[in-house]
Automatic annotation (TrEMBL):
Signal peptide: 1-20
Annotated ranges, domain Solute-binding protein family 3/N-terminal: 34-255
Species: Amycolatopsis ultiminotia
Protein name: Amino acid ABC transporter substrate-binding protein
Residues of the Ionotropic glutamate receptor C-terminal domain: 34-254
Transmembrane segments: none
Pfam families on file: SBP_bac_3
Coiled coil: none
Top-level taxon of origin: Bacteria
Keyword Signal: yes
Alphabetical list of SUPFAM superfamilies matching this protein: Periplasmic binding protein-like II
């Protein structure tokens, strides 16, 4: 029975890949009138569930604008996580991921990325009453929280000696646990961490300089070159006509993401 199930899954996977490869994904999206967009729905202010029960945030507005510029009338938001984004996009469960994925060489071997649509900076967060941790060097041998499947997880494992990494489904859960003393620190976006701390009344604070700046893009299956090309055009147009500036200032405390992107290569 187990063997039969495995064969069915394998056959279905192969069939899905064959169907995806046999046609133009962009054309399929336009024919269906729906763009399926994956995001965590749990990383404010980038993307989260609003009071009405529907996703809102920077990524959501960008995804809606992307669909509009491609002539697609509906966006279907699919909840996923950093751990499942790549496998989900490869399996065809959604057409694009718009959820702050960092563009890395390892990920580019499995999926294609759009030109950057946002940049981010990672900081060390600690309890507000903690005077002992002031930099990355102070984390050796400590327990460090990260969101599972993010580049911060691999960064902690590679850069901190004798670290004990605790993973969480999203940054809110990690920062909350940090505030309760269940971790010594958390690696997370400085902007997102500060936003979540203020919104949820968490007694945590960022310390030290930014550990690294990350360039984030939308990701697509390898058989979606036309969809990627349209996304690149849409992002370039949003930067040029002020749309990206307007959206980022609304959600990111006045930050002009178009200006931030000037230092990021278009490819």
């Amino acid at each position: 029975m187990v063997l039969f199930s495995v064969l069915l899954v394998s056959a279905g996977t192969l069939l899905g890949c064959s169907n995806a490869a046999s046609g133009d994904v962009l054309q399929k999206v336009r024919d269906s009138g729906t763009l399926r967009v994956a995001l965590t729905q749990a990383n404010p202010p980038w993307n989260f569930v609003g009071p009405s029960g529907t996703p809102i945030g920077y990524d959501v507005d960008i995804a809606n604008e992307l669909a509009r510029r491609m002539g697609v009338g509906k966006v279907e938001f699919v909840q996923a996580s950093f751990q499942t984004f790549i496998e989900g996009i490869k399996a065809g469960r959604y057409d694009v991921v718009v959820s702050g994925q960092t563009i890395t060489a390892a990920r580019k071997q499995q999926v294609d990325f759009s030109r950057p649509y946002e940049v981010n900076g990672i900081s060390v967060f600690v309890q507000a009453s903690n005077p002992k941790i002031a930099s990355l060097a102070d984390l050796n041998g400590k327990t460090v929280a990260v969101s599972a499947g993010t580049t911060q997880q691999s960064f902690a494992q590679d850069k901190i000696r004798d670290v004990r990494v605790k993973t969480y489904e999203n940054a809110t859960l990690g920062l909350t646990d940090l505030s309760r003393g269940n971790a010594d620190a958390m690696l997370v976006s400085r902007f997102q961490g500060s936003y979540l701390a203020g919104k949820n009344g968490l007694a945590v604070k960022p310390v030290g300089p930014l550990l690294e700046s990350e360039v984030n893009g939308m990701s697509f299956r390898k058989d979606s070159p036309a969809l990627k090309q349209e996304a690149d055009k849409a992002i370039a147009a949003m930067i040029a006509d002020g749309t990206l500036t307007r959206i980022s200032k609304q959600w990111l405390g006045g930050l002009d993401m178009a200006a931030e992107l000037k230092t990021a290569p278009a490819n």
